[in-house]
Write a structure and sequence with these properties.
The chain has a 7-stranded mixed beta sheet. A 7-stranded mixed beta sheet has the order 7-8-9-10-11-12-13. The termini are close together. About 20% of the residues lie in helices and about 30% in strands. The protein is of the alpha/beta class.
Length: about 260
């Protein structure tokens, strides 16, 4: 099985860390691991790079991590912190000199087109407008992306159904507070699991740190990284409290399966 690499572009909650107007110990921290942009990853194998979610900071994230090109985009769901950078995909169109496929569920596409419907229109060869050129691809089961099988994993973000994804022995499951029974078999024998862990307190739409640790034990991946982290969890102190093989992810971190 080809080696799969995860690049964490962002690991923060929807408000980011530091948050506007907050001067808590984490928001004012000098530790670069405590600077968290909105959650997104690039999943790479061979020469292929797939962007998962398109945050409001996607341009800054890609410049900071030297992501110079992508081959497609996959969306977990349609919340603002996961889609509102989509106009910046136009630069990747220019680099590729062609359109990009956007893979998502029907409900997510409906949300995306409220703001970015123009990006899915047929390009006008006479137009000088610099806009994204995106092609909708609907997820309704496992799908192939450049020779690798992507398996969608049903998750729940509060009452909202969302998707995680398994690629090889890596699974990315952000924005989740409930994993339905039928999804657990899709999470067996993982090298790397990425899982939501928002804060210490229970939350209506995200796993708390304690809940995420419980899920980690149940799933049993070789290594687990928590993401979508709020300002209540300082990186160093939290990581020191976690079981072996479990840690908070951080912006710019690269993890390779195997």
């Amino acid at each position: 099985m080809p080696e799969v690499e995860l690049l964490f572009l962002g690991t923060g909650t929807s408000a980011g860390v530091p948050m506007i107007g907050c001067h808590c110990a984490v928001c004012d921290s000098d530790d670069p691991h405590d600077k968290r942009t909105r959650p997104s990853v690039v999943i790479s194998y061979g020469s292929t790079r797939i962007l998962v979610d398109v945050t409001p900071e996607v341009r800054l994230q890609c410049v900071a991590n030297r992501v110079d090109a992508i081959d497609a985009v996959v969306l977990t769901h349609g919340h603002a912190d996961h889609i509102m950078g989509m106009d910046d995909l136009r630069r990747f169109n220019a680099v590729k000199n062609g359109p990009l496929d956007i893979w998502c569920e029907e409900r997510t596409f409906t949300t995306v087109t409220r703001c970015f419907g123009y990006a899915f229109k047929e390009p006008d060869p006479n137009s000088k407008l610099f806009r994204p050129q995106l092609v909708r691809r609907e997820i309704n089961g496992p799908f192939d992306l450049f020779g690798m099988k992507w398996t969608p994993i049903r998750l729940f973000h509060g009452e909202m159904p969302v998707l995680g994804f398994r690629v090889g022995n890596v699974a990315y499951c952000t924005d989740v507070n409930r994993i339905p029974p039928e999804s657990y078999p899709l999470l067996e024998n993982l090298d790397v699991l990425v899982l939501d862990a928002l804060t210490l307190k229970p939350h209506a739409t995200h796993f708390s740190l304690e809940q995420a640790v419980t899920e980690t034990h149940r799933i049993g991946a070789k290594r687990t990284f928590f993401t979508h982290i709020a300002h209540g969890l300082g990186h160093a102190a939290t990581c020191s409290s976690l079981p072996d093989g479990v840690s908070l992810a951080y912006d710019g971190q690269r993890v390779v399966s195997g």
